[in-house]
């Protein structure tokens, strides 16, 4: 059994009965979240999905990390394909009672992984020059998209012990999500279910020296510092996409 299934009672709904098809591991990850007015983000997601709010505000996340163990079941890891740095920009949506993640963009270094994610998941991936280096418990991250001015540079480190978020809290709302949404070229809304154990979160500190990841949407972040969480590792499995019935026509 895959390690992602070592705990399942925390899921908000049952995992699909069909076999999962992809596996991956998210490593050395930093969640950065800012509250953003919902009307600023509404145009960034299709009208068929509901943009979610927590305590009267929508939220946007920028998440740098590294991928490992990325492969379609049942194939083994492959050098230069299964591991690479990534950064995504995301917000939070709901369709048919299932809250999930909507990605505004995802940047990675691996052209084959970008092709596969675009082909099978219809996700807005972009190629970038990236690096993630670790010195002790500190991580140094750099990303610059090969086309356009989207870039990010920061250092971060965990500052406390691992813990699980509590249901009903903002940090749980931001992180404990078990599907992602995307839109196919013909306009259908697709849902990919995911499975993992509860996020092993840690408080974090970060210094951001360059962040233009939101420039394609002209979104201004608030002056307040972001809400930060670190996670060392989370193993994940993903199912094939299903068409949301509300968009199947």
TrEMBL record:
Gene3D superfamilies: Acetoacetate decarboxylase-like. It comes from the Bacteria. InterPro entries: ADC_dom_sf, DUF2071. Pfam families: DUF2071. This is DUF2071 domain-containing protein.
């Amino acid at each position: 059994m895959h390690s992602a299934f070592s705990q399942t009672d925390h899921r908000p709904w049952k995992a699909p009965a069909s076999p999962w098809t992809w596996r991956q591991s998210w490593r050395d990850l930093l969640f950065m979240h800012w509250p953003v007015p919902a009307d600023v983000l509404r145009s960034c997601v299709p009208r068929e999905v509901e943009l979610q709010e927590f305590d009267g505000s929508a939220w946007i996340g920028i998440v740098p990390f590294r991928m490992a163990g990325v492969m379609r079941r049942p194939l083994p890891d492959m050098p230069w394909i299964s591991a690479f740095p990534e950064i995504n920009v995301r917000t939070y949506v709901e369709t048919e009672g299932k809250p999930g993640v909507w990605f505004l963009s995802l940047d990675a270094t691996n052209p084959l992984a970008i092709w596969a994610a675009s082909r099978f998941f219809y996700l807005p991936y972009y190629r970038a020059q990236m690096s993630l280096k670790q010195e002790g418990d500190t991580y140094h991250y750099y990303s610059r998209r090969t086309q356009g001015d989207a870039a990010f540079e920061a250092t971060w480190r965990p500052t406390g012990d691992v813990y699980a978020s509590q249901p009903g809290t903002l940090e749980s709302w931001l992180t404990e999500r078990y599907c992602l949404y995307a839109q196919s070229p013909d306009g259908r809304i697709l849902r990919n279910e995911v499975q993992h154990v509860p996020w092993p979160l840690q408080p974090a500190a970060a210094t951001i020296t360059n962040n233009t990841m939101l420039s394609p949407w002209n979104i201004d972040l608030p002056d307040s510092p972001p809400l930060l969480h670190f996670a060392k590792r989370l193993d994940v499995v993903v199912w094939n996409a299903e068409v949301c019935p509300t968009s199947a026509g």
